[in-house]
Amino acid sequence: MSRFFRGGDDSSTESSSDEEELYSGSEEEEEEKKDQDVDDSSSDDDEPEAAADSGSDSDGDAKKKGVNRFLADADSDSSSGDDSDNETQAKVKSAKDKRFDELEATVTAIQNGQKINDWGSISNELDKLNRQVIKQIDGGKAPKLYIKCIADLEDFMNETLAKQKVTPKKMNATNARGLNVVKQRIKKNNKDFQAQIDAYRKDSDDFMESDEEEVPAPKVAKVRFQDLTAEQGQDDDEGFATVGKGGRTLLFTPESIFKHLRTIMESRGKKNTDRLEQIKIMEKLYEVAVTPYQKIRVLMTLVSARFDLGSGAATSMPLEHWKAAEKELATLLRVLETEKDHIVIENAEEWDDDEKPPTLEDGAKYIRIPGSVVSYIERLDDELTRSLQSIDPHTSEYIERLTDEGSLYNIIFQGLLYYEMLRKDASLEVPQESLNRIIQRRLDHVYFKPSQVVKILEENCWKEVPSNVDSEITPRDPSHDAGHLLNVLCNYLFENSDGIIRARAMLCQIYFLALHDQYYQARDMMLTSHLQENIANFDITTQILYNRTLVQVGLCAFRKGLVYDAQNTLQEICGSGRQKELLAQGVMIQRFNQVSPEQERLEKQRQLPFHMHINLELLECVYLTCSMLLEIPLLAQTGSSPDVKKRVISKTYRRMLEYHERQIFTGPPENTRDHVMQASKALAAGEWKKATTFVHSIKIWELMPNTEDIKTMLAKQIQEEGLRTYLFTYAPFYDTLSIASLSTMFELDTRKVSAVVSKMISHEELAAALDQVTETVIFRKGVELSRLQSLALTLSDKASALIETNERTLEHRTQGSANAFNRKDGRGGNRGGGQRGGRGGARTGGNPQRQAGGTQFTGGALGAAVRG
Questions:
Q1: Which residues contact residue 465 at a Cβ distance below 8 angstroms, ignoring those fewer than 6 apart?
Q2: Phi, psi at residue 775, to the nearest 5°?
Q3: Were 679 and a residue from 66, 264, 694, 739 both cysteine, which residue would form a disulfide, CB within 3.0 to 4.6 Å?
Q4: In angstroms, rounded to a whole number, what is the distance separating the alpha carbons of residues 654 and 657?
Q5: For residue 345, what is the DSSP state?
Q6: How many helices, marked H, and strands, marked E, lie in the chain?
Q7: Would strands 768-771 and 776-779 be described as parallel, antiparallel, or unpaired?
């Protein structure tokens, strides 16, 4: 022992100090053991050892140090072998106590932040506090210290905000940011603990002193039952059987089907419910189902359970379960078609007897089963839409998923036939709304498609129907085209529905007509429907359909060569700059407005699948081209006259044009917008061929049907507008101008040139006369106002308008007193037209009759181009 426990040169002073430490250490150990209700007899046995150690300094010191260094035991109560001989023994804390200490320290930090009004640190500590309290929530209740902290913090925040409103004080950026963060998070956070917070605010002392804690229910160990069974619970080849709760084997028999269905229906929506296991059980129940009633009940419950898999807001239904639900729904419709005496209807009563299925009573024709086939079809359609929204449209997966639309359309058609069959019997009282809803779903799948695609869909769906079955609404007739189908479906909804369904049917028909170049019919239906007056009162999806229809009508007008109608129709959508949002083809990035997560989720749910999109680049190209053909002649006509310049057809186009003119260096056009701007500049300078080249080189025209016809129409329009622009710009420099010269210059027929000039003269756009004998245009020279004179007249008009405004204000304040206008200067309340020196009252249109020509065209967006 002396080899290992040899002491050094220890003095008596060290020995006495060690003895004192030993004595104090033994007392601490006794107190700890009393608190823990542990027998402290071992500490009494240590006193002789302590006395022995004190009697022998060298040996005791050597033994103490040896044990302290090498032979320390956690369970040893010997003072000579304990670490407390040199240091005070450290108190061991449980993990729960440590977490509570951390929570208490964080609460103290928040309170200190409140004292100095440091919202930056309060925000950081609040995040830390919320992370810590997650581990300490017991039985749904949070620690009382946490409840007290967040309740006091909310009160302090409200008090600070109230002070800011009364006496605003400028806070630094960190403090203001922290206050805003706390304001956003504290209200949302406190909702989860509102009951405890209310109890604390009701009586804080009683809440903090009460020791009653909610005892959480004992957790039952989860047992995962393997579903590897054969029918009726018999062992399969591998020796497995289906085991339910309680360890009992599940028996799948026709008699037990309704009991299993009742159990499954009661567990729907509850937590910890294994939906996939329920689906497997119902699949086995369908295998043992014998009667039609059993099959119908199992299929309806099975389809509903599959829809529960896609109940989340951000997740769509799994593909394999969607296909399975589609097959099961088709099977359900076939069973209902075969078994005429079993019907699924919304107003049927629930059958509660699981032991005895319902039977046909005397005089009864049907066994009524509560349910809604149209609801299943709508949900299946919605799940397909959500799936298409979540898939990248530029992948083959999207194309493969889109092929499921054909089978879905077949189910919609079969559901329509089923409801037509029910409607034949007036005693069933089938609601008309159900039939309207399913017809609307059929419309939603065909209104935006070309007629060739609709014809293929119709042929495929009729192949799935027996030859002896026909539809009353849309009879079987191969000679009927898609237009006839749309017309029949929409007319049926016009007669048998109202409100949103009727409005949507009308919009679908207008969209289809515009898509197939029947512009005048679509325009007349749009005007007679008066939907533009009350569309704001409809739901958002109907407003989106209205916007899509409006855009399609505008594109149809453009294809017909009606430039003015196209621009006027597209102005409302394209002029706003929010085409993507208004057509539900994307979510706009909000720069200054913070969108809540709920609103953002709703925006994403409303987005249309990619195959329903209208090409936004093509839409912008059409809009800018139409604006160019209207704005360039207008700019040439008005010139730089300040009183006429207020007339603007397209603010969006003017803004782009001005931006393009401000560019120091203009390179070759790269995109659609550049091509249109370059064409505008060339057209304003009279270079119509160059403008035509720029417009024809836009590649987006290839997406339109009959591309060559579109380009020919655009070339013709540019020629005519180039002629009008030339006449507006250079008329002051001519006395007479030959029609033949204009015909040669713009490569137009002389009759066409004469028609354009005559139209300009009749509309008083051009001060000239047409001599049909000599085929010349004779211009009339009038007194042209200089720019200074125009500005002077504008100033006088504004001054007279200001005087009239002041007089009206004075009359209003003096309550119409006659003395207020008895003035020597003769300016009374009733201003005659002759008191302005013969100029005839207030000027509303600028110059009395502005002469045609372009001498005033010295500025504006395209002034430099014309002067060059």
A1: 413, 414, 417
A2: 55, 55
A3: 694
A4: 5
A5: E
A6: 35, 5
A7: antiparallel
**Which helix or strand (DSSP H or E) is residue 493 part of?**
helix 482-496
What string of DSSP letters covers 167-224?
S--PPPHHHHHHHHHHHHHHHHHHGGGHHHHHHHHH-HHHHHH----PPPPPPPPP-P
Band the pLDDT of 522: cuts 50, 70, 90. Answer: very high
Look at residues 722, 748, 751, 726 and name the one whose alpha carbon lies nearest to residue 737.
726
Compute the radius of gyration of the chain from its Cα atoms.
Answer: 44
3-state secondary structure (DSSP) of residue 153: helix
Please give the full DSSP string across 794-810, using - where no structure is assigned: HHHHHHHHHHHHHHHHH
| β-pair partners for 138 | 141
Distance from C-alpha of 335 to C-alpha of 44, rounded to nearest angstrom: 88
Rounded CA gap, 69 and 451, in Å?
94
Residue 858 clears pLDDT 90, i.e. is over it: no
Report CA-CA distances (Å) from 495 to 422, 535, 780, 790. Answer: 19, 20, 60, 60
Nearest-angstrom CA–CA distance, 431 and 423: 9
**Mean pLDDT score of the chain:** 77
Sign for the CA dihedral angle at 770, 776, 782, 784 comes to positive
Tokens of 192: 């989860």
**Exposed/middle/buried for 729, CB within 10 Å: 0-12, 13-18, 19+?**
buried
For residues 855 and 864, give the distance between their C-alpha atoms in angstroms, rounded to a whole number: 14
Please determine, for residue 623, whether its predicted confidence score (pLDDT) is greater than 90: yes
Query: Does pTM surpass 0.70?
Result: no
Q: Is 343 helix (H, G, I), strand (E, B) or coil?
A: strand
Q: Give pLDDT tens digits for 801-810.
A: 999 999 988 8
In sequence order, what are the beta bridge partners of 344? 369
Model confidence over 411-448: pLDDT tens digits?
A: 999 999 999 988 888 788 888 899 999 999 999 999 99
SS3 content of the chain, % helix, strand, coil (to 5): 60, 5, 35
Rounded Cα gap, residues 868 and 863, in angstroms: 8
Highest mean pLDDT among 226-230, 347-351, 764-768: 764-768
Please compute the mean of the pLDDT values over residues 199-217 and round it to a whole number.
Answer: 66
